[in-house]
What we know:
- About 10% of the residues are buried.
- This protein folds into two domains: about 5-50; about 60-130.
- Helix 3 packs across helix 4 (about 65-75) and helix 6 runs antiparallel to helix 7.
- About 75% of the residues lie in helices and about 0% in strands.
- It is an all-alpha fold.
- Keywords: Membrane, Transmembrane, Transmembrane helix.
Amino acid sequence: MNVDFYLILAGHTDDVSRAFRNRGMLQENWLLITATLVIGGIWFALYLWENLQLKRKANADTPQGLFYDLCKTHRLNRTDISYLLKAAQAHYQNQPAMVFVDPGILDAYIKEVDSDAKYYEILAEKLFQK
């Protein structure tokens, strides 16, 4: 029985040595693997934190809560939200959600000769499908 084992093992020495070499590559790249896992974990934590903050703001029974709820419904990112808040503050300071109802608010910013005019045009397209 012992002889059979050695004969079988002798026929597969390349496979065994290849397996040990691959294990060595994992040991050599542990820093890269660890850094990737840490960066991925941090990114995931920040993603969850941002969603928690939006959910907390949206749950408030205030005009701002309605605004953030509509932003979440339209799947707007942080940049979109800041641009909409800027437009809403100028026209409807007490009711920022009016920017989702009145397309004239964004049209006023689109007509301005500014570097942000194109971004407001994209936002109007997202919200009103113009």
